[in-house]
Design goal:
elongated; Elongation Factor Tu (Ef-tu), domain 3; alpha+beta; OB fold (Dihydrolipoamide Acetyltransferase, E2P); 43% helix; 4-stranded antiparallel beta sheet; Helix Hairpins; single chain
C-alpha cells in the first residue's frame, strides 16, 4: 500500500532542514570571526612587543602634540631715561630699523658736548707739549754750541799755559863748534823768547780753571736740556693717550645719544607695547616684542617608539585649526638632543621606588616650505597635527640624529 505525504508535511520538513542548515552555518561564521579577531590581536601584540607601531607598518607617524613656533625678539632699552614717545601701535607690522620708541635726549646731548670739549682740551695739551719739545730742541742745539765754544776756549788756554810753562823750563842748548847746537834739539817745546813771567803763568792757570768750570757748566746744562726734552716727550705721549681716552669717551657719548632712538631689530609684527610715553626705563627694560612673521616652523613631540624610522629630510604634512582645509608641507629638520622630561624644572628620578616604563617624547623640528597659501595666518603657539612619512628612504644630512 503506497503511502502518500501531504503538501503541508513536505513544507514543514523543508523548514526544519533549512533551520538546521542556517544554524550550523551561523555557528561556523562566528567561529571564523573569533579566529580572525584572535589572530589580529596576536599580531598586534607581537608588533607592539617588538617596538613596531602602526605608523611603522603604514609608513606614517602622526601626533597632535605639536605647536607652531617662531623667533621672539625682545626689544629693550640700552640706557636709562624717560620715554618721550612710542610712535607705533600694538600688533603693528614694523620693518627692520623702524623707530618704535624714543627717550628724552637732552642729558645725552649735553654729555656729547662735554666729551667734545674735554677732547679739545686734551688735544690742546698735546699741541703745547709738542711746541715745548721744539723749543727745547732749539735750546739743546744752543747749549751744544756753547759747550763747543767753551771747549775751544779751554783748549786755547791750555796751549797758552803749556807755552808759558815750556818757556820757563826750557834749558839752554850747548853751542857746538861752528855755531851748531850740540846734540838733538828738545822735541815739541815752545821757543823761549824770554818774555814769560811768574804772574803771567798764574794768570794762565786761572784762565784755564775758569774755562774748565765754564765748560763743565755748559756740559751740565746740555745734559739737563736733553733730560728735560725726554720728560716733555714722555708727557706728550701721555697727553696723546689722554686724547685717545677722550675720543673713546666722546664715541661712547655719541653711542648713548643714538640709543635714545629705539629701533626694531627685525622686520615682523610687534606685540603689545610694554612701555609708554612718560615712563622711566632703565637698561634692559622691555619696550616690546617683535616676531619676524611669516618665518615660522613646527615643533612636534613624538614618542620615542615613533622615531624608530624617522630621519631628517623626510617629508611632513601639517594641519592647523586656524587654516581649516589647508595642508602645509614641510620636511623634518632636526631632533632635540634630550627628552622633554629631562628639561623640565623637576626632572624624573627613577632610582628609587617602583618603576613604570613610560614612553618619552622628543621634540622634532619641522621646517615649512615658504610661500604656501595660508602660511601668513600661522602664529606661534597654535596647535597643529603633524604627519611624517617615515617610509621614505633616509637622506644623509650633516647634523642629523
Amino acid at each position: 500500500m503506497e503511502s502518500s505525504i501531504s503538501a503541508p508535511d513536505r513544507r514543514s520538513a523543508a523548514a526544519r532542514v533549512g533551520r538546521l542548515f542556517f544554524k550550523r552555518l551561523h555557528g561556523r561564521s562566528t567561529l571564523v570571526i573569533v579566529l580572525l579577531v584572535t589572530l589580529v590581536m596576536g599580531v598586534a601584540l607581537a608588533t607592539i612587543r617588538n617596538g613596531v607601531t602602526l605608523g611603522g607598518i603604514t609608513g606614517r607617524e602622526s601626533t597632535d602634540d605639536a605647536y607652531v613656533r617662531a623667533d621672539q625678539i625682545a626689544i629693550a632699552s640700552h640706557i636709562a631715561g624717560y620715554v618721550e614717545s612710542v610712535p607705533v601701535r600694538d600688533n603693528e607690522t614694523v620693518k627692520q630699523g623702524q623707530v618704535v620708541a624714543t627717550i628724552q635726549a637732552d642729558d645725552y646731548r649735553a654729555k656729547v658736548a662735554n666729551a667734545a670739549a674735554a677732547l679739545e682740551v686734551a688735544q690742546s695739551a698735546v699741541d703745547v707739549l709738542s711746541a715745548q719739545a721744539n723749543v727745547q730742541s732749539q735750546k739743546i742745539a744752543s747749549a751744544s754750541a756753547e759747550v763747543r765754544a767753551a771747549e775751544a776756549g779751554l783748549k786755547q788756554t791750555r796751549l797758552q799755559r803749556a807755552r808759558q810753562e815750556g818757556q820757563r823750563r826750557l834749558p839752554r842748548s850747548p853751542i857746538a863748534p861752528c855755531g851748531q847746537p850740540f846734540g838733538p834739539p828738545t822735541a815739541h817745546l815752545v821757543v823761549d823768547d824770554g818774555t814769560t813771567s811768574h804772574r803771567e803763568l798764574e794768570s794762565a792757570e786761572a784762565d784755564e780753571d775758569r774755562l774748565r768750570a765754564l765748560y763743565d757748566q755748559k756740559a751740565a746744562e746740555l745734559d739737563a736740556a736733553k733730560h728735560l726734552l725726554e720728560v716733555i716727550r714722555t708727557q706728550g705721549l701721555e697727553a696723546q693717550q689722554t686724547v685717545k681716552t677722550k675720543e673713546a669717551e666722546l664715541e661712547l657719548a655719541r653711542i648713548d645719544l643714538g640709543y635714545t632712538r629705539i629701533v626694531s631689530p627685525a622686520s615682523g609684527q610687534l606685540s603689545e607695547r610694554a612701555s609708554l610715553a612718560g615712563e622711566y626705563v632703565t637698561p634692559g627694560s622691555k619696550i616690546g616684542l617683535v616676531v619676524p612673521l611669516p618665518n615660522v616652523w613646527i615643533v612636534a613631540n613624538f614618542r620615542e617608539s615613533q622615531m624608530a624610522h624617522m630621519y631628517p629630510g623626510q617629508s611632513a604634512v601639517v594641519s592647523v585649526d586656524s587654516a581649516p582645509g589647508v595642508r602645509f608641507h614641510g620636511i623634518v629638520d632636526s631632533f632635540e638632543p634630550a627628552s622633554g622630561a629631562l628639561q623640565a624644572l623637576l626632572p624624573p628620578d627613577n632610582a628609587t621606588g617602583n618603576f613604570t616604563k613610560v614612553a618619552q617624547r622628543f621634540a622634532v623640528k619641522v621646517i615649512l616650505a615658504p610661500g604656501q597659501a595660508g602660511i601668513d595666518r600661522l602664529r606661534p603657539g597654535m596647535s597643529s597635527i603633524v604627519t611624517v612619512a617615515v617610509g621614505e628612504v633616509r637622506q644623509e644630512r650633516s647634523g642629523g640624529r
